[in-house]
Amino acid sequence: MTTNNRTVLDTEAGRITAEDPHLRRGARGFPLLPGGYGRSTYYTGAPGPYAIRGEGYRLRDDRGRELIDANNNFTVLIHGNSHPEINQAAVKALSEGASWGIPNIYEWELAELLLSRLPALDQVRFANSGTEAVMSAFRIARASTGRERVIVTRGGYHGTSEVALVSGGPSYTRGITEGVIKDVTTVPLNDVEFLREAVEVAADTYAAIILDLLPNRAGLLSLSEEFVREARDLATRHGIVLIIDETISLRLGFNGLSRDYGIDPDLLTTGKLIGGGFPVGAIAGRAELMQEVDPTRAGSLPHGGTFSGNPVSMAAGAATLRLYSEAEVQRLNRLGDAAREAVNSRIAAVGWEVRGRGSLLRAVPSGIERVDEPTQHRLWWASYERGLLGSPANLLSLSTPMDAGVVDEVADRLTAAVLATAATLNKA
Length: 428
What we know:
By secondary structure, the chain is α/β, with parallel strands linked by helices.
């Protein structure tokens, strides 16, 4: 709760009070967290609210607001906040032991559930995040092909490993060695000819092509079917590993979004929702590639992670996948499509549009691939003031506790926020 500008958090250990959590300082006088933030991705241009409690699609913050949570921890919480069945599964696993140094049966259950949705793939190895999953996928591809270079698309986001950051441009490549940068070829979004030429000029140097089918960094523009098919054909023809990163887009189809394109990847990386709100990542792939991390084979790649496959994440993830049935996938996608259409009809006149697919939406100025940060922050605060919580980049993700009435409210609040932001920008 907030009283006289003081933030008070109640915990089992007692009450934590601070004038502003962002400004809490340690003994040497510095903020406890760099800039006052535990993640750079929290930043919205000014000190923001702190979460106090979430339930279903609602979230309460330390400023006394009740918000419609369409951030859902950056798309993780497909079943919203504090889902009782997921909580029960996690608590049961935790009560038996948070993590061990030997395998646990929960890992097998989640692996079976995940692979049942990915019928073209044979095996899965778990990690602690989507970033770790992508790092491992690149290493598997390099080991299996004996090559080093990779192709990424501009605007694709594949976590925070050095290779994955290169496609973000100069602001992301500070601190990354020139050797890593030279190993990455960035292809313009949906430029089929550029992709073809990039591969064919040096096909025997490429280990992998990685695709983000609905890149949020590019304003939630979809990859075209022609571009994705060309990537699949080039990879097959030249012995390159095709990696589809479905860390976010897995939610859009019971079999993932790649199946909607009619293609199968060689490796698929994912995370977020499959951990039920707990840390997780996964690499699923064909057996001839996944054997690279089979410890029973001589010369296999070492793969670890102290908390990889931990029982709490695995149990919560299994509960999440069981709850996210094909009917729920389709229902949520229909709601998202309807919301996108409704908002677009109201904001087109001010030069904005809502992009996305199914249960993912993002409002951006029309025709722009990358939205500048000040504009993103203006829209975030305009949405927050109207009781709608999105990501700092204004990505909205629906959750299964939402019904048509709630999604209509999301559409109304987003429309009002966009109109207010557009008016402010026009005056600037």
